[in-house]
């Protein structure tokens, strides 16, 4: 299997579908794993058939979780469909492969009171603390993906209107997300008091800046959120994605329509959003068992 074909496939995903950088990296890694498997078997692209694909799938299922193997299978299926269109393959060797069964894995979430603890953790008397509070408030108010949050530019924010424009989110689609009064307040405070201090004499249109005046990275924000988590009663491993889960779950707990939550999260398919209805339902069960006299 020529690695140049992987490059060509990734390029086509970027050009035709406008997929995000992180998504493209995941596709590339999955195909590199398949390439390594072929190499150990001394096979090339012309050797790929249903038996080879099945052998790879069996090997993979023994090595990784069902969710990971299913993702890799989906990647290979998409690659093979592309290779067929480009006449690198004569038939799709993955047609007979079916994704592994896996139990419904509910996303971990945190309570509203725990979110309050997290939001109140930064010391807003400091420049970094004010920035961190603004980032956390924005994350919880909008449910943005961490990549969407750290790549926001100042021109994407309209504080007077109370909205954020997410440019080319996952799936290559823009969306408008309201932010609420509290996030508006801390964003305004950050942009007038903290951001100019962080920026100094540099030129940078990214909204959230590091202490060096450079763009905030995903990894840096992960460390920030983990630091504040230690100051709260939150016991589960905390990440930006957990706060995004909390955003969706708390909306549903308060009666938000599933379609509205889908739009706010930027999910292309409502089936992706429906997982949160299970989270909300589990929360209702817990409350019932705790408070109902006959539970």
From TrEMBL:
Tyr recombinase domain: residues covered: 105-289
Keywords: Cell cycle, Cell division, Chromosome partition, Cytoplasm, DNA integration, DNA recombination, DNA-binding
Any one annotated GO CC term: cytoplasm
Top-rank taxon: Bacteria
Domain Core-binding (CB): 1-84
Cross-referenced InterPro entries: CB, DNA_brk_join_enz, Integrase-like_cat_sf, Integrase_catalytic, Integrase_recombinase_N, Integrase_SAM-like_N, Recomb_XerD, Tyrosine_recombinase_XerC/XerD
Record field: transmembrane: none
Location of the active site: 145, 170, 241, 244, 267, 276 (o-(3'-phospho-dna)-tyrosine intermediate)
Major localisation: cytoplasm
Subcellular location: Cytoplasm
Biological processes annotated in GO: cell division; chromosome segregation; DNA transposition
Task of the protein: Site-specific tyrosine recombinase, which acts by catalyzing the cutting and rejoining of the recombining DNA molecules. The XerC-XerD complex is essential to convert dimers of the bacterial chromosome into monomers to permit their segregation at cell division. It also contributes to the segregational stability of plasmids.
Stored PANTHER family: PHAGE INTEGRASE-RELATED (PTHR30349), TYROSINE RECOMBINASE XERD (PTHR30349:SF90)
Family affiliation: Belongs to the 'phage' integrase family. XerD subfamily.
Subunit field text: Forms a cyclic heterotetrameric complex composed of two molecules of XerC and two molecules of XerD.
Protein name (Swiss-Prot/TrEMBL): Tyrosine recombinase XerD
Organism: Pelistega indica
């Amino acid at each position: 299997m020529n690695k140049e074909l992987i490059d060509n496939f990734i390029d086509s995903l970027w050009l035709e579908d406008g997929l995000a950088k992180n998504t493209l990296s995941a596709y590339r890694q999955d195909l590199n794993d398949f390439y390594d498997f072929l190499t150990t078997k001394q096979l090339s692209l012309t050797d790929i058939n249903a038996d080879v694909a099945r052998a790879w799938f069996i090997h993979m299922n023994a090595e990784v979780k069902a969710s990971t193997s299913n993702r890799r299978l989906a990647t290979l299926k998409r690659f093979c469909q592309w290779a067929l269109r480009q006449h690198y393959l004569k038939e799709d060797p993955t047609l007979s492969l079916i994704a592994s069964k896996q139990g419904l894995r509910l996303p971990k979430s945190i309570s509203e009171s725990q979110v309050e603890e997290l939001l109140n953790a930064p010391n807003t008397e400091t420049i970094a603390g004010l920035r961190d509070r603004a980032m956390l408030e924005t994350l919880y108010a909008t449910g943005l993906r961490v990549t969407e949050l750290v790549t926001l530019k100042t021109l994407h924010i309209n504080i007077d209107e109370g909205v954020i424009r997410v440019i080319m989110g996952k799936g290559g689609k823009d969306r408008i997300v309201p932010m609420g009064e509290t996030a508006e307040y801390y964003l305004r405070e950050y942009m007038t008091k903290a951001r100019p201090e962080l920026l100094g004499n540099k030129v940078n249109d990214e909204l959230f800046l590091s202490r060096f005046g450079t763009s905030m990275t995903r990894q840096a924000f992960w460390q920030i959120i983990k630091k504040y988590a230690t100051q709260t009663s939150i016991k589960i491993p905390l990440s930006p994605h957990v706060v995004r889960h909390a955003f969706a779950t708390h909306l549903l707990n308060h009666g938000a329509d599933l379609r509205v939550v889908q739009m706010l999260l930027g999910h292309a398919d409502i089936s992706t959003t429906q997982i949160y209805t299970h989270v909300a339902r589990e929360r209702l069960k817990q409350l019932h068992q705790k408070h109902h006299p006959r539970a």
